[in-house]
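Known limitations

Files may contain more than one protein. Parsers should not assume a single record per file. Below, a two-record file is shown to illustrate correct handling: read the sequence, read the token line, then continue until end of file.
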Amino acid sequence: MFRFGDPSALYWLAVLPLVLVVLVLARRWRRMRIAAFGHAEAVSRLMPYASGGRWWARNVLYLLALALLVVGLARPQFGVAREDVKGRGSEIMVVLDVSRSMLAEDVKPSRLERAKLEISKLVSELKRDRVGLILFAGRAYVQLPITSDFAAAQLFLQSVNTDMIQQQGTVMGEALSLAMKSFGPSERMGKAIVLISDGESHDDDPLSVARQAAKEGIRIFTVGFGSPSGSLIRQPGGGVLKDAAGNPVVTRLDEKTLADIASTTGGVYLRAEVHQGSLSPIISRIEDLEKGEYDKVTYTRYNEQFQPFLLVALLLVVLASAMLERKNRWLSLRGVKSLNKH
């Protein structure tokens, strides 16, 4: 495989046509100045060793050297090996509520944006484990299957918003059930679910799913975002969310449901606002889970290959610098003498 380590450097190649234009204009201006001395044939006799071809050859070499220098600065890289690395850790499924109630701003900047920030920190701590992401509102979907590719997890997390699931609602139980089915087949690896929500679940019974998770040895850790006193839901286009009767919708943190889910499975419930967003208690519990062996994602190592480009660029500069714009007088005289002998 081939790639550039710093592809933005290639934008400097756009300068080359401009340099070429400057050279052409400079050459034309020089000819105009020489023409001012007299007729072209007479001037050429006064300058018998002038060479336009050498001038062009020299500057073309400089341009090629500049182009190779830019390519070298872009750090061309070639993949030389693919490896399957064995890892040892636990499996963590993050279940994130993306219903409209997560747009409430009783947690700044909003429940959802704060939750994404905390999940990002959590993923950064789980360096030896595997992680997956499930989103839910009126339906539940696997956004990221369980993986050890943390860069991909962070990338998927950044794109999460409430428009990703059009069907509104809060099927917390369905989301937990989907998370349980998303783990790998290994029975010797600790499994945990981190549920992040405001706790409002009007569409199913998450406690019954939690009891099933406890039977299967899966712990559920819950994190509540919001305030028990409630908050209005700000709409992306402005204004607040209203019900069918035109009354503003107030969303409240349901701590009891989240705490009951966690306690049923031997997990921990945290209220993000009280713990200042720190998930350290959950991370420490996850570290105590049983660790099992798994195959990490196959990756490619890249070797830097900028050296040949810079070396050739240097040689071209040396060659261009050694090339004179005028013909060599001594060689020209030898050529004339040789012709006269014949």
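...continuing to the second record:
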Amino acid sequence: MPARLRLGDAQVAAVARFHYGLVDAAPELPPAEEYEDAQGVLVATSDGEDLTIAEVPRWEAPAEVAARLHDRGWESPAAWVGAPPADVSGLPSRVLVLLPAAGLPPDSAALAQRAAGWGSVRSGGREVVVLPVPVTPGAPEVPATDLAAAYGAELLGNDPGDGRFRTGGRVVLCTGLSGAGKSTIAARVVELLVEAGRTVTLLDGDEVRHHLSAGLGFSRADRDTNVLRIGWVAAQIAKHGGTAVCAPIAPYAEVRSEVRREVERQAGPGSFVLVHVATSLAECEARDRKGLYARARRGEIPAFTGISDPYEVPVDAEVTVETAGRTVDECARQVLDAVLGG
């Protein structure tokens, strides 16, 4: 049994639900003596049978919320769970908004979007308190009436949503062999996206190695770390509605899938576009502008992708770009169609 385990956002929310009496049963957590949140704060301890809660700093206790509203003069609070109704004319002058947020990070763009939906209600003269609560969007573990009551309020209505969201951001990850044309195509895609009025960030080449991956070598572990770092930064860009275009070799399917999961967790389903630049090994070797393939054939570069280390051809690419006999612009516009049409 590990001494200390870091919990994900959904697991910390499950601890909060139990701690605040929103559910009766303790959450099922992997065995450990201590549990911490993403910031390293001790959340709970376990003796193997019972879970003892230390603190859940992100989530405000329902009783404290009720007391705070009472102190503000809210004698009979009314609560709405989730997004505002289409017709807000029937809402009272004061509304407690309970936003299901379990599984979402504190800086989630999805959460910000849902909170922003209440802006027009507030600007219309009503007093609105928006509170993230530890139940899952689209699949709440607590009935809406019981949730409102826990916060000392009567339920007005609820629209918890279906749990799906999209920020409008995209990540385009171009993968392929060294010399396949990834960087050239990616650069042209960026130009076309800028022409289309998109906010774009290019993550490629020496700048990435210098700023994100300084100190990394070219072992499998280091190459994986390089791709994961690029993916994490790209996901942050997409989370806030921007577009990131990346062009690492990214030879391993498992790591590409991990990047896809992170991007879609941050920016929503369909926000990740995998582009396989499918230039053949023979063509890449024939180009060999840097002489890397020749050196790899002589054994001077160990674990060189395509020669002494595998390139796992994507089976899940949204776009496969065949470069033979085509111009850079033609290839880039094929990618652009997938990005703008998605």
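Parsers that stop after the first record will miss the second one. For reference, the second record is described as follows. The chain is about 35% helix and 20% strand.
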